[in-house]
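Slide 14.
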Amino acid sequence: MLTLAALAGIGSTWLVVEGARPERAGTPGPIHESAFAPGSAGPGGAAPPRIASPALPEPASLQAVHLPVVKVVLELGAEVPEPRGWRLVVRRGDETVAERFHGGSERELELELELAPGNYSLAAEASGAASLPVPLELERSTDVTLLLQPLSTLAGAVVDGEGAGVAGLPVHWRRARALERSTSTDAFGAFQLEGLVRGAGELVLGDPRSPILPPRALELVAGLLDLGSIPVPQLGELLVRVVDENDVPVAAALLSGSGDQGGSIDARSDLDGLARAAFLPPGMYRVFASHPALGRGNTVFEFAPGEPSPVQVRLRRAALRE
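Slide 15: predicted structure.
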């Protein structure tokens, strides 16, 4: 007889085979009776044969599947009207891996999540409102409360020392050391970050690992927060040449580095051994270069926008063994 037996744990089932019984101690496997009627004799008056079948394999592939259950409670912040619908979004970093839409006014629900190991967050979104992301515990079932708050927009314009707009500069909104939104300035240096959840965070200009200005702490409110003009130091572009021990240009070398006043270098050399880095303020820099076959090298230099370049980095094979 086949019985579907539910085990302790949400969404867990095993397929169990019942009714098998051994002939006697030490006899492997279940017993299959012959086709003779009970109590009847077989050919020549012999008792019906009792044949032990081979032992059934253990159902090793039938494993209980334990899926964590997340109970979600949605709350509404001040100035947030009752939503007509809202959705739950599961993200791994900046990637959305799952989402579920809910219509009507239901604000409590349970989710079964089947996700690969990793770090995930859960957030709620509705028209004109969203919640802050909450880290997900995949090892166990848990309760999560998500607070819908009005969305904010952060705007401004990045200008250099002469008042000209800085085009193409990366701009980020960071909260609790995690990037929440990113964009780049337009041809006039203007930027706009939309869909931000109200609350405290930081505005970061340039590479978050080495921004061109110290991160600016801000408190977002519902609606638009326009910062106006944001002056930055004069920025320049650096050209780096990578060569081997014989001064031959090296293609496909990886370069990284940063300056003591901000600015970062993260590039790969081209066929001429050249790599470029932009949005660099004046200061002292150290650049590292590496190639898996030709070695590693680094150099320290002072950079000022408008000064001649390139800076040269020579690789040494011996550095691969250090």
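Speaker note: Residues 1-43, 58-66 have pLDDT under 50 and may be disordered.
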